[in-house]
UniProtKB/TrEMBL annotation, chain A:
<dbReference type="Pfam" id="PF12800">
    <property type="entry name" value="Fer4_4"/>
</dbReference>
<dbReference type="InterPro" id="IPR050954">
    <property type="entry name" value="ET_IronSulfur_Cluster-Binding"/>
</dbReference>
<feature type="domain" description="4Fe-4S ferredoxin-type">
    <location>
        <begin position="8"/>
        <end position="38"/>
    </location>
</feature>
<dbReference type="Pfam" id="PF13247">
    <property type="entry name" value="Fer4_11"/>
</dbReference>
<dbReference type="InterPro" id="IPR017896">
    <property type="entry name" value="4Fe4S_Fe-S-bd"/>
</dbReference>
<feature type="domain" description="4Fe-4S ferredoxin-type">
    <location>
        <begin position="85"/>
        <end position="114"/>
    </location>
</feature>
<feature type="domain" description="4Fe-4S ferredoxin-type">
    <location>
        <begin position="51"/>
        <end position="84"/>
    </location>
</feature>
<dbReference type="GO" id="GO:0051539">
    <property type="term" value="F:4 iron, 4 sulfur cluster binding"/>
</dbReference>
<keyword id="KW-0004">4Fe-4S</keyword>
UniProtKB/TrEMBL annotation, chain B:
<protein>
    <submittedName>
        <fullName>Polysulfide reductase NrfD</fullName>
    </submittedName>
</protein>
<keyword id="KW-1133">Transmembrane helix</keyword>
<feature type="transmembrane region" description="Helical">
    <location>
        <begin position="88"/>
        <end position="108"/>
    </location>
</feature>
<feature type="transmembrane region" description="Helical">
    <location>
        <begin position="44"/>
        <end position="68"/>
    </location>
</feature>
<keyword id="KW-0472">Membrane</keyword>
<feature type="transmembrane region" description="Helical">
    <location>
        <begin position="242"/>
        <end position="270"/>
    </location>
</feature>
<dbReference type="InterPro" id="IPR005614">
    <property type="entry name" value="NrfD-like"/>
</dbReference>
<dbReference type="GO" id="GO:0005886">
    <property type="term" value="C:plasma membrane"/>
</dbReference>
<feature type="transmembrane region" description="Helical">
    <location>
        <begin position="209"/>
        <end position="230"/>
    </location>
</feature>
Amino acid sequence: MDIRKRRYALVIDSRKCINCKACVVACKAENGVPTGNFRNWINADRQGEYPKLRIDFTPEQCHHCEHPSCVRVCPTGASWQRKDGIVLVYEDDCIGCRYCMLACPYDARYFHEESGTVHKCTLCNHRVDKGEVPACVETCPSKVRVFGDLEDPAGRLHELLATRRHIVKEPQTGNGPQLYYLL
Amino acid sequence: MHEFNWGLLIVVYLFLGGLSAGLFFAAGLANYLEVDGQPAYPRIARMGALLAPWPVALGSALLILDLGNWYRFYKLFTHFRWESPMSIGSWLLTLFTLIAFAYAFAWLPEEWRMKLFSKVPATWKQVHRLNVDLSAHRKTLAMIGFPFSIGVGIYTGVLLGAVSARPFWNTNLVAQMFLFSALSSGAAALLLAMVLDKRNPIETHETKFLITLDIVFISLELFIILPYLIHGQLSVLAVKQALWLILGGPYTVLFWVFFMGLGLLVPLAIEVYELAPSLLKGRTFHGSRNLALAASSLVLVGGFLLRYIFVYAGQLSSFHKMGMLH
């Protein structure tokens, strides 16, 4: 058995993003996300005035934080984090109090009306555990998203984060977000 | 626009939980006060004891109904997670409710108790064993209950204050603000109940005691709210932007006119107006029934509004959306 430590994360080269939303659709299809809810989305930030203007597209989803505040506040332990960093909701223990939704600084969770529980991005753990990449990563036509293991020194994430300048969103929340945006 | 994950049921629960904490505290305090070796306010102690458990019991029921899966609420008690304010709060709330009911039982007049147990079938022997006179243990029960009532009063604030993602809540002042508001609501509710009880008209010294208590609690509440506003203005951008919600934003009128004005300063002014002549000039305290009614009702409205504003405005505040709100 492979007992090497893993830490899954996403690196996002948002300058390549063309706002086609294929990732959003792929996620919805893969995970059966209800109409009106999203596990991932694309922010469009406009700057400037015509004719001098620009627009930045930044894909976003659960940041699978190092210190996830959603996991901390959960009263039943239904929100939990795998050793490889993936933050999940164990639905059988979720009472639907929605405290985790308030605790998430990125508003990455939604309330699933049908089950009365909270759902979120699973980083497609069902695919990852089979050695595949998340659906959003696989579908992206301009290769914005790179999925990988931060603990793998020979991996693609290591190379990108070592050679490219990058940021994380709202680090001041103390959550230690693990979506890395290349500059 | 942002949707609200916590709504009116949570607001009502936070209010009712705090109200019970305040009722218990005021009643327990009244139970300890004596004049010349005689209980000074036995009727306040009884009224508060008998009222205290009901709001929190109703509030907890609403809390359970608000869950996505209400029938899974028992899972709150099959897990203990000390890092989660809600987990600690669930235990605190349950223990406090049990103690408040036991305390109310200890204050139940003998004939009421007999009447209550006469309705229980005689074959239910285990239940009839509970038909005991606890009146000798009132002080002990009050002492056990004090920390729990304070705990529940604080907890309703900690529940919000511990959420680091919401700058409007995430300050160390919200817990005390909610506590003093809860204690003030409790004193006001007692005053209101005593004034409305026409069979046993409230006596002047009782009005005076409750008004004095409420002035103390409202003043403490003011001492928390003002630093909350000032310190927030001097804080980092996210907190400053969050405060905009009540300083120009959508909750400004509700906060300043209805909460600060009608719910806090007006009742405080009424109570000070009532108490000042006896306090400063040694005149006899009279206590107008209508003014007591007005002040106590307004305090309760204010207590409710404080929770309403905090629950809703807090959910709008965040680290990344505030720029767009402006």
